[in-house]
TrEMBL record:
Gene3D superfamilies: Metal-dependent hydrolases. GO terms for cellular component: cytosol. It is an enzyme of class 4 (lyase). This is 2-amino-3-carboxymuconate-6-semialdehyde decarboxylase. It holds the Pfam family Amidohydro_2. Keywords: Decarboxylase, Lyase, Metal-binding, Zinc. Residues 3-327 form the Amidohydrolase-related domain. InterPro entries: ACMSD (IPR032465), Amidohydro-rel (IPR006680), Metal_Hydrolase (IPR032466). It comes from Alteribacillus iranensis.
Length: 351
């Protein structure tokens, strides 16, 4: 089974919150044709997208062509809207969470879903996380690497992580509002340099601050292979060693990596081998960033190219690790996938 852990989706009919609430920072979807649209922010094109970003049927056709059995659907980070009043951001989150849950329910053998929550208000975030996992049956929550410039180790977020651990909710951390944005607009460095650096800062903050030590059963996956975090981990250890007055944990940072997961999206077998050597193959999940331009095509290509790991290790990274991380029973998924395929074949032959 091949599970693409890192894919994004947005409702085609998402409301124009800029018109409703009078803020130009809300992302809106302006269709340019039947098969494409622009995500607009503040009157400017934030990203050009194709209809795969909202159409489940198109996604399934791509999945069948590229050999992907399941996708894990998550919101596009620009929709997090942490800057907005919590009640308005909650409305945006609920629309997306309902859409993702409905998409999963319509195709239970092809999709799993992650919800989003308004992290600018912890109580509201916890309540929507509760709804996502206990009412909508979503498989986890996606959050950003910071909340309005505040790192995730801030005390106000502790109750959120406490409840995520208590409810065994997997957390997918994706960069957004990246650091050094004033220095990265040229060359699209926000995507290629800013995002990996932003992810490293989020991971380092959670470990150094003691959040991971305090909530040892918390399950967290960092996108884009963890960004630059895997490569600066020895430097973090050295800092912990030479600055004892800054220590907030009982052990150096590398001690706390056992419950961290990473998607495989770093494009290079050499980098992926480093991830395996540093964290273990059982902590890596295939992810492609579908359907955006920087995605890996076909999903899992780098894993397939590796010739110095076993078939069993590849199987774990290509699908089994994601199923385990998301607390899904593999037998149930296989049955739903088989049923979904059979239903689609019957429908096709009937037509």
């Amino acid at each position: 089974m091949r599970v693409d852990f890192h894919t994004h989706i947005i409702p085609q009919d998402i409301p124009d919150f800029s018109e409703k609430y009078g803020q130009d920072r809300w992302p809106t979807l302006h269709q340019t044709c039947t098969c494409g649209a622009n995500i607009m922010v503040g009157g400017s094109v934030f990203r050009e997208v194709t209809d795969q970003v909202w159409d489940p049927e198109k996604r399934i056709k791509d999945m069948d062509r590229e050999g992907v059995d399941m996708q894990v659907l998550s919101p596009i980070p620009v929709t997090f809207s942490y800057w907005a009043p919590a009640s308005e951001a909650l409305e945006m989150a609920r629309i997306q969470n309902d859409f993702i849950a409905n998409t999963v329910n319509q195709h239970p053998g092809r999709f799993l879903g992650l919800g989003t929550v308004p992290m600018q208000d912890t109580d509201t975030a916890i309540a929507e996380m509760d709804r996502c996992v206990h009412d909508l049956n979503l498989s986890g929550i996606e959050i950003g690497t910071n909340v309005n410039g505040i790192n995730l180790d801030a005390k106000e977020f502790a109750p959120f992580f406490e409840m995520a651990e208590k409810w065994d909710v997997p957390i997918f951390i994706h960069p957004w509002e990246t650091m050094a944005r004033d220095r990265t607009p040229r060359h699209n460095f926000m995507y290629t340099v800013g995002m990996p650096s932003e992810t490293a800062l989020a991971a380092a903050s959670l470990i150094w601050s003691g959040v991971i030590e305090k909530y040892p059963r918390l399950k967290i996956c960092f996108s884009h292979g963890g960004g630059s975090f895997p490569y600066i981990l020895p430097r973090l250890d050295q800092g912990w060693k030479v600055w004892p007055h800054l220590r907030l944990t009982s052990h150096p940072p590398s001690y706390y990596i056992d419950n961290l997961y990473f998607d495989s999206l770093n494009y290079d077998p050499l980098n992926l081998q480093y991830l395996i050597d540093r964290f273990g193959h059982d902590r890596i999940m295939m992810g492609s960033d579908y359907p955006f331009l920087l995605r890996e095509i076909p999903p899992g290509q780098v894993i397939d190219q590796m010739d110095n790991i076993t078939t069993e290790q590849k199987k774990r990274m290509l699908g089994e690790n994601a199923i385990q991380f998301l607390n899904v029973k593999e037998k149930k998924i296989i049955n739903e996938l088989t049923s979904d395929v059979a239903g689609r074949e019957a429908s096709s032959s009937g037509n």
